[in-house]
Structures are given as C-alpha cells and as structure tokens.
Design goal:
This protein is α/β, with parallel strands linked by helices. The chain folds into two domains: 6-23 and 48-77 and 306-333, no CATH class; 85-290, von Willebrand factor, type A domain (Rossmann fold), CATH 3.40.50.410. The protein has nine helices and 13 strands. It has helices at 15-24, 49-74, 113-127, 152-160, 173-184, 209-218, 258-266, 277-290, 307-328; strands at residues 2-4, 77-86, 92-98, 106-108, 111-112, 132-138, 142-149, 192-198, 221-228, 232-239, 246-253, 271-274, 297-305. The chain has a six-stranded mixed β-sheet, with helices on both faces. The protein has a three-stranded antiparallel β-sheet with strand order 1-2-13. It has a two-stranded antiparallel sheet with strand order 4-5. Helix 3 (113-127) runs antiparallel to helix 4 and helix 5 (173-184) runs parallel beside helix 6 (209-218). The two termini are 38 Å apart.
Length: 333
C-alpha cells in the first residue's frame, strides 16, 4: 500500500468543488462576449453543439485529473518494500539438469520432462531466498550455465534459457556430476549439494558416474538423483536448437533407475523416481529441508518514490486540456 509523507497536501483538492460552487452561484464567472458571425449574403455560422460540448467537458476532466495528479505528487507518495538481507551463508545447491532429446517427452502431467523440472526448480528458488542455486546443463557434454549464486534473478534467467538438444544427444552423467563437483569443492557454504535430474542412463562422456559420485563423497558434497519420466510409449516433440529441425513422434521409455540409486548411495544422498509435477515438488521440498541451514538475517526497507511520475502525468493532462481549449475550441484561456 502507498504511504504519503505530506498528506496535508490533499486539502488542496477542496479547491475543485469550491471552484464549481463559486461558478454555479455566479460569484466567480468567466467573462464572455456574444458575437454573431455572418454576412449579408452568406449563410450563418453553424455551431456543432454536441461535439464542442463533449470537447469542453473532456478538457475539464483533463484539467481536473491533472490538478489531482499534481496534488498527489505534492503529497509525496511512497511505496515501501521489505527485503530480507542474510548476514550468514546458506546451502549451495547445484542442479545437474539433463537436456538430452528424451527430456522433451511429454509425460509429466502433459508437460515435457525438462519443462516440468524447470517449473519445480523455479518454485524452489522463489521459496528459498537464502540458498545459493546453480545449474550444470548436461547431455553428451556438460557446461556450467550459472555457478551457485544468491542472485536468483540471474539463476532463473539461465534456467529459462535451457532447451532440449542444446548440448547434443546423449547423457554424460559422469561428466555432468564431475563438473558440478569441481565447482563446489572451493565453496565455503556450510552445506553443499548436487541434484541430478535425468531420464536416462550414462551413455556418453569419459567419466564414470561412480567415479564422480566418489569424488563428491570425498569432498563432503551430498548427491540426490531424480529419475524423471514414466515407462512405456510417450509422445515427444522438440525443435533442434542447432538445425531448427522439428522432431515429433513417440519414445519408448524403459530406462533403469538402479544406477541412479547406486551413485546417490555412494555420495550419502538419496534417489527418487518422479512421474508427476507433484512428485517433483514434494521431492525438492524434502531436499531443501534436508540441506537447510539456520541463517541470520535482518529486514531492510526500501522506498520507491512516485513524485516525478505524477508530475509528468499532471503536465501531460494540463497540456491536453490546453490543446482542446486553445487549439480546437479556440478559446482564450
């Protein structure tokens, strides 16, 4: 809700009804001179009564609205926002997100596997402002899209930019996990966690997932694996970002999640199977609770001023009223 630092300025609004009262009682009236415009041989001047009356009323509305905007500006409106500022560090959560073509399968409540994962991650990030989030995009290759950061707007921007097929065809789980581990080793966060979201088995890259999981365990990094997708024949549709070619058809989904259970156990984490958006939400909430850290913080109040915007609006309204009166109605005002 807006607040006003100079609310007494609103008493100036009483001038509007006062002006209309004075005019209606004849105390304050404008000077006018009746003039007949015609010549002896020509036709009399015609007056478009309805249109000009509308223009006159519109100019009064503009002028009144401009005056109200100016008075509101003098009242100095302010909108205050409270922001939570953390003075201690929370957990680092680095998502390793599979972007292989099979993640385009639409079997998670009508959404593609990748879109469902992105949606759930976005909700988690919004609800956990003190946690640092990062992304490793993974397919036949792996790349850090954004390292763990408390700047959630930057994180969400990179998350939204992930597309199916951006890193080729395949699932290099070991490469993706080892990339995430190396970016968390030097972190000073009290809790470090990797969340792998994939729908397939390791079939690319030169690093075995067990090796990457062991490296995570050695460095005190928790690993959670999420096997996303249903089994059977599922529809698939996506556009290859490199060639622009459209792929549409069906996918025989029959991956074995046992390998994901194994690597999660190596790194002291847990493995989950995801078949709906609700499953994904529940699992991510559980993970956030498991890696939650007690943080200290304080609230900072920021004020946004609207004085300049209202002054600009008032100026525009006054100019419009003047144009109607002086240019169109050709009144001397």
């Amino acid at each position: 809700m807006p607040d006003f630092q100079n609310p007494a300025a609103f008493f100036l609004l009483l001038l509007i009804p006062l002006l209309f009262i004075l005019r209606s009682t004849g105390v304050f009236t404008r000077v006018s001179f009746p003039v007949t415009l015609s010549d002896w041989n020509g036709s009399s001047f015609t007056w478009n009564k309805n249109l000009r009356r509308f223009a006159s009323v519109l100019s009064v509305i503009f002028a009144s609205a401009g005056f109200i905007a100016a008075v509101t500006a003098f009242a100095d409106p302010v909108v205050s926002h409270q922001e939570k500022v953390y003075t201690s560090r929370g957990a680092d959560i680095l998502f390793v997100l599979d972007t292989s073509p099979s993640m385009a399968a639409r079997d998670i409540d009508g959404k593609s596997r990748l879109d469902a994962a992105k949606q759930a991650i976005r909700v988690l990030a919004v609800q956990n402002s003190g946690v640092s989030f990062g992304i490793v995009a993974m397919a036949s290759e792996a790349a850090v899209s954004v390292p763990p950061t408390a700047d959630h707007s930057a994180f969400l921007k990179e998350l939204d930019g992930l597309t199916v097929g951006m890193l080729g065809d395949g699932s290099a789980l070991g490469t993706g996990l080892s990339t995430a581990v190396y970016h968390l080793i030097t972190s000073s966060a009290p809790v470090k966690c990797i969340v792998l979201i994939t729908d397939g088995e390791n079939n690319a890259g030169s690093i075995h997932p067990d090796t990457a999981a062991g490296l995570a365990a050695k460095n005190g990094i928790l690993l959670y694996t999420l096997a996303i997708g249903t089994h059977g024949t599922v529809p698939l549709n996506y556009v290859d970002p490199k060639t622009g070619k459209v792929y549409s058809g069906y996918l025989e989904s029959d991956f074995d999640p046992s390998a994901l259970h194994h690597i999660a156990k190596i790194a002291g984490g847990r493995s989950f199977e995801i078949q709906s958006v609700e499953d994904l939400r529940i699992v991510l909430d559980e993970i956030s609770r498991r890696v939650g850290v007690v943080q200290t913080y304080y609230y900072r109040t920021t004020n946004k001023m609207y004085y300049d915007k209202l002054i600009l609006a008032a100026a525009v309204l006054f100019i419009l009223a003047w144009i109607i009166r002086r240019i169109y109605l050709q009144e001397i005002v």
